[in-house]
Amino acid sequence: MRALVGGKGADWILENRDLPEQLGAVRVQVMAAGLNRADLYALDGSYTANSQGEGPFVAGMEVAGIVESSSLLAPHLPVGTRVMGITIGAFADYALCHPRMLVPIPDHLGFEAAASLPVGLITEHDALVTQAGFTAGDTVLIVGGTSAIGLIGIQLAKALGGGTVIATTTSDHKRAALLEAGADIAVNTATEDLADVVLAATDGAGVTITLDHVGGDLFLQLPAATAIGGTIISIGRLAGAVTTLDLDTVAFRRQRLLGTTFSIRTRTELGDVVAALTDRVLPAVAAGQIVPKLDSVHPVDDAVTAVRRLRDNGATGKIVLSFADAHTGPAPTPGPVANLFGGIAQIGYVVRDIEASMRNFVACGIGPWFFLRDVRPADFTYEGEPSAMAMDVAVANSGDIQIELISPTNDAPSMYRDFLDAGHEGVQHIAYWSDDYQGLYDRALAAGFTVGQEGRIGGADGRFAYLRTEHHPGTVIEISDVGGTKKFVFDLVKLAAANWDGSNPIQTIDAGLIGGDPAAMTAMLEALG
Hints:
Layout: E1 2-6, E2 13-16, E3 26-34, H1 37-44, E4 57-58, E5 62-69, E6 82-86, E7 94-97, E8 102-104, H2 111-114, H3 118-131, E9 140-143, H4 148-159, E10 165-169, H5 175-181, E11 185-188, H6 194-201, E12 207-212, H7 222-225, E13 226-234, H8 247-252, E14 256-259, H9 267-275, H10 281-286, E15 294-299, H11 303-311, E16 318-322, E17 346-350, H12 354-363, E18 369-375, E19 378-382, E20 385-386, E21 391-398, E22 401-408, H13 415-421, E23 426-434, H14 437-446, E24 451-456, E25 463-467, E26 476-481, H15 484-498, E27 506-508, H16 511-514, H17 518-528
Parallel strand pairs: 9-10, 9-12, 10-11, 12-13, 13-14, 15-16, 17-22, 18-27, 23-26
Antiparallel strand pairs: 1-2, 1-4, 3-5, 3-7, 3-16, 5-6, 6-8, 17-23, 18-21, 19-20, 19-24, 21-22, 24-25, 25-26
Helix pairs in contact: 3-4
């Protein structure tokens, strides 16, 4: 795969690397990746994420794409799911992501638009709601509103029920972007006094919450623009990390001043930040209340142009790198037979001496055995042709798994006879039981499986089929209806195993019982009291 690698010079280097693998991670087929200030800081060595290793690194932290390889930790994100999120190593054709750092992309969003959202959503929601304690009706000031993150902050405050939302820019031609995002008032801090405008818009009170993405000299004006008891959150430092501050104003107005960053947070903490979007933020995105603002999209081999645009502060909204040209084939999809049959209910052995086999299992502590002689399934066919196959059958349970022993008693064609004639003896099949036999049967045929033999034991709810899946001995798949008298016997076998004390290890029962004979059922019930 292609990857943009930092730590080898002043710019990223496009390299070929092996596809990444990690137990528990989701591997995403990257379609687009968002560019952030932190990526520039990482490139020049002034920013290192907590989870980033030493030395050269695959750059990027904001991703949108398709789950190519799923994680056992994320059954809600199967292969083929469109996802967006944060990670280390997003600027590559494939990226490994922790499951908690990903969320599904709303249906109406394309990948480039989706790549514009994750960092902005988690940054602004964490600052506004988790850190500042936002509640509906609060007035909010977004300093640095035309940044990609700032534009999301404006929309987020409005979507969550904010009162007056004021946002800043340093350019008159970017005012429209602030108002378009939902700001009630746009302030050009290059030509207007921020505190004066804010106080005039809030009847002299100031805003409840200030989110600052700029820092530098402008930070001095924020306490005067923020209400008594208000909160100022320092998120970014686009104008520099050094500032002056009138502490008297902060003290007299009893304000809280908080700083925030994600670079030193643990994976668990970041997972909590992403999870916090679930209740209100992601529904707002799905409803179109929060709309990503794309500035420009660049192919990966033109990343230098994208970096230059971000460094020059020329962007209004998000700059995105596209990796879509690496994925022009069919999108990943779940395997057609994955979990098709459910859980194994039975392991079936085909043996020559069924009584010896039962005794051997008893010696291993498995029993009691229910032994049926000369079982003749109804409507039995082998390779589509009728067959008069007869067999002895014994069944016992070990926990929830039933063990079945089968020994054909005539030479009529069957897959059991094939197994023995090939010189095999032992496990011949694994069985799956279903109360929707026809549905499972139809799905198996649609997935390309073929039937080797099938028949019926008991009534209409006693059907079974053996599929041609023997890649090596013991891999035949049986699917079986489980109802009626068959279910009665199987439940009895399981109950007997759970309470077995070692006595009566082998019990011969009437083959007519499992075949649905009412007289055999009555006799068994009477024998059991």
